Recover the amino acids of this structure.
């Protein structure tokens, strides 16, 4: 069972904060559908706006095939909610999710960020950076597709420290611990 309504509420709350404090700016081109209408196309910094996700079931099958693992239903609900360039919740910075290039960003995080033998070859699929020193990863070695979440530290690449029972539990905890809750 997906917790899509609760996931949407958490994501929307944190994306609204990103926009409110104007952290929704990147250097370089922003996808046209996500571009702030007030952007100067010649400016180095561009403002982006979150938009409704266009992720399809076929897209999910494609990325699952590339990763070699099914994605948890709650993570699929997360991907199917909104497109964004930056999403911070507590110390987690989620993988970029812009329209049209989100699969490349997720694949790059899994295959090109660190040597494959440290992550994907062990069944650890990164989906968010943790602070400036590690990744939050799905531990696909578990016996369920509702994978537990572990914290991978680039200075201790042989260890995936167990953190949460699943994506939804992690998202609830991140939200509870965030600055947006006082």
């Amino acid at each position: 069972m997906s917790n899509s309504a609760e996931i949407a509420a958490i994501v929307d709350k944190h994306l609204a904060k990103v926009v409110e404090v104007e952290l929704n700016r990147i250097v370089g081109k922003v996808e046209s559908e996500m571009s702030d209408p007030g952007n100067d196309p010649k400016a180095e910094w561009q403002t982006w706006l979150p938009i409704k996700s266009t992720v399809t079931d076929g897209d999910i099958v494609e990325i699952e095939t590339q990763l070699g693992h099914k994605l948890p239903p709650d993570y699929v609900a997360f991907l199917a909610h909104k497109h964004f360039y930056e999403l911070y919740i507590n110390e987690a910075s989620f993988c970029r999710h812009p329209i049209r290039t989100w699969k490349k960003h997720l694949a790059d995080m899994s295959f090109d960020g660190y040597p494959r033998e440290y992550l994907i070859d062990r069944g650890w699929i990164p989906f968010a950076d943790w602070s400036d020193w590690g990744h939050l990863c799905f531990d696909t070695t578990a016996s369920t597709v509702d994978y537990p979440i572990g914290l991978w530290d680039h200075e201790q690449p042989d260890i995936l420290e167990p953190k949460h029972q699943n994506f939804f539990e992690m998202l609830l905890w991140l939200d509870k611990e965030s600055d947006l809750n006082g």
Residues 4-181 form a domain with the SMI1/KNR4-like fold (CATH 3.40.1580.20). The longest helix spans residues 4-20. The chain is about 30% helix and 20% strand.
